[in-house]
């Protein structure tokens, strides 16, 4: 079971995701990074159907970069979240919907930190804290990648691990 | 019958290009034999752009057209980033350039998405050239009236400069100029592009400014300059920085003139 969590602070957003890539009962990887850097101050965390996650996340990532190239400045987190949701919604009623659950975390220079919850039915909610999945540390999920976004950008924090290997 | 048809097509092309360029009544345009040639003429009327490939830096300089009195001096950017490591300057029809630049930007991201690597400068040049060529050989469309200078660094660190023209050909250059007075600038570069001249970043930038000063009317105010250094994003120089460099160049010129005087007198 995959797990994502995000917490918005007064001037930062803290996010964490587990590091397991599993296929049924087999853990294929235990160092898998589920966070996608959309821009200097926006991170997208993505879990769900294998393949859909990377395809959808990279598609959004490249489109956010294209916006930056075309316009000379980056999309705000709110705009990026709405863009993502719109794409999910369009694909939802097609033959090829994306089964992905997302958290989008970002820092807007004018509005401050923001955390957005999205799911595979293309719902969107701005929330102070949010999570996807069941994250039982140590017993089920051995380690988590943790990152922080503030006005300086994205910072890597120490991985949470059980220490045992 | 065929002859009259040719003439009509040509005058139509002439009209298409001259209208776009803001010229009235196709004056100054003689009958040419193909739409590509008209596009090339349109390029020759555009403001000058110069590109220089240094060792650790690539430089693009353009002549800024003076704006009308009531027009806001928001810098009409003739130098545009295509991706974080590639940028281009153009000469010719600005509207046509917008289309080409947009397509190139999309292609840069598309390439990253499918191949997980940034484009090489040659790849994106080839893409732009192919796009231009398609418009020289298809029904009812006229060629893009722009030449482009494309600069950047490949991911192995090699600096590159390419030039494309409306026919869809492209070539790599060490230094080149396009637009009005391109010939004069190119001749200047042929004389002055030496290993010394591009030894350092500053020298390469000064060479670009010197080349433009040959043809630009009133000096630093009418020059826009952009540089890419290895592993760094595009940087557009502020007018203050350009003024400082222009002042340095003037000083060097004076010192050169002084030395020559002294040599003559001794």
From TrEMBL, chain A:
Listed under subunit, the entry gives: Component of the proteasome complex.
In which organism is this protein found? Sparus aurata
UniProt family annotation: Belongs to the peptidase T1B family.
Matching entries from Pfam families are given as:
Proteasome (PF00227)
Question: What is the protein name for this chain?
Answer: Proteasome subunit beta
Q: Name one GO cellular component term.
A: cytoplasm
Q: Where in the cell is it found?
A: Cytoplasm; Nucleus
Q: Which domain of life is it from?
A: Eukaryota
Q: Which PROSITE patterns match?
A: PROTEASOME_BETA_1, PROTEASOME_BETA_2
Function as written in the Swiss-Prot or TrEMBL entry: Component of the proteasome, a multicatalytic proteinase complex which is characterized by its ability to cleave peptides with Arg, Phe, Tyr, Leu, and Glu adjacent to the leaving group at neutral or slightly basic pH. The proteasome has an ATP-dependent proteolytic activity.
TrEMBL record, chain B:
A cellular component term from Gene Ontology for this protein is: cytosol
Keyword check for Coiled coil: yes
Compartment(s) of residence: Nucleus
- Please name the GO terms of the biological process aspect recorded for this protein, alphabetically: proteolysis involved in protein catabolic process
Query: Which InterPro entries does this entry report, sorted A to Z?
Result: Ntn_hydrolases_N, Proteasome_alpha, Proteasome_alpha-type, Proteasome_sua/b
Q: What Pfam families does the database record attribute to this sequence?
A: Proteasome
Residue ranges that the Swiss-Prot or TrEMBL entry lists as coiled coil: 235-266
Q: Which UniProt keywords apply?
A: Coiled coil, Nucleus, Proteasome
Instruction: Provide the family line.
Output: Belongs to the peptidase T1A family.
Q: What is this protein called?
A: Proteasome 20S subunit alpha 8
Tell me what organism the protein belongs to. Answer: Sparus aurata (Gilthead sea bream)
């Amino acid at each position: 079971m995959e797990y994502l969590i995000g917490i918005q602070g007064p001037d930062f957003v803290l996010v964490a995701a587990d590091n397991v890539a599993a296929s049924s009962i087999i853990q294929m990887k235990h160092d898998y990074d589920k966070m996608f850097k959309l821009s200097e101050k926006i991170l997208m965390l993505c879990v769900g159907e294998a393949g859909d996650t990377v395809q959808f996340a990279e598609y959004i990532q490249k489109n956010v970069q294209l916006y930056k190239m075309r316009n000379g400045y980056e999309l705000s987190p709110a705009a990026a979240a709405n863009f993502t949701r719109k794409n999910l919604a369009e694909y939802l009623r097609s033959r090829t919907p994306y089964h992905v659950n997302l958290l989008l975390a970002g820092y807007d220079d004018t509005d401050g930190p923001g955390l957005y919850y999205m799911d595979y039915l293309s719902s969107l909610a701005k929330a102070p804290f949010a999570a996807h999945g069941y994250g039982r540390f140590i017993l089920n999920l051995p380690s988590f990648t943790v990152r922080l976004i503030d006005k300086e950008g994205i910072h890597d924090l120490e991985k949470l691990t059980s220490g045992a290997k | 019958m065929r002859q009259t048809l040719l003439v009509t097509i040509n005058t139509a092309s002439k009209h298409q290009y001259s209208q776009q360029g803001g010229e009235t009544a196709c004056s100054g345009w003689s009958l040419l034999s193909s739409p590509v040639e008209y596009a090339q003429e349109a390029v020759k009327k555009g403001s000058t752009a110069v590109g220089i490939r240094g060792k650790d830096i690539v430089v693009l300089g353009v002549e800024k057209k003076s704006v009308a009195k009531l027009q806001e001096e928001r810098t009409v950017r003739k130098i545009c980033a295509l991706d974080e490591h590639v940028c281009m300057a153009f000469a010719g029809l600005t509207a046509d350039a917008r289309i080409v630049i947009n397509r190139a930007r999309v292609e840069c991201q598309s390439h990253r998405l499918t191949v997980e690597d940034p484009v090489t400068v040659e790849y994106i040049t080839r893409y732009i050239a192919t796009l231009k060529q398609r418009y020289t050989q298809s029904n009812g469309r006229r060629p893009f009236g722009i030449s482009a200078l494309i600069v950047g660094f490949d991911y192995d660190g090699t600096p590159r400069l390419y030039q494309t023209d409306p026919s869809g050909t492209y070539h790599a250059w060490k230094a080149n100029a396009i637009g009005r007075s391109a010939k004069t600038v190119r001749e200047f570069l042929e004389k002055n592009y030496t290993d010394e001249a591009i030894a350092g970043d500053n020298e390469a930038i000064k060479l670009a400014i010197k080349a433009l000063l040959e043809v630009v009317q009133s000096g630093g105010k009418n020059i826009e300059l952009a540089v890419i250094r290895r592993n760094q994003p595009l940087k557009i120089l502020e007018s203050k920085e350009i003024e400082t460099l222009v002042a340095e160049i003037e000083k060097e010129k004076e010192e050169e003139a002084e030395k020559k005087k002294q040599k003559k007198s001794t």
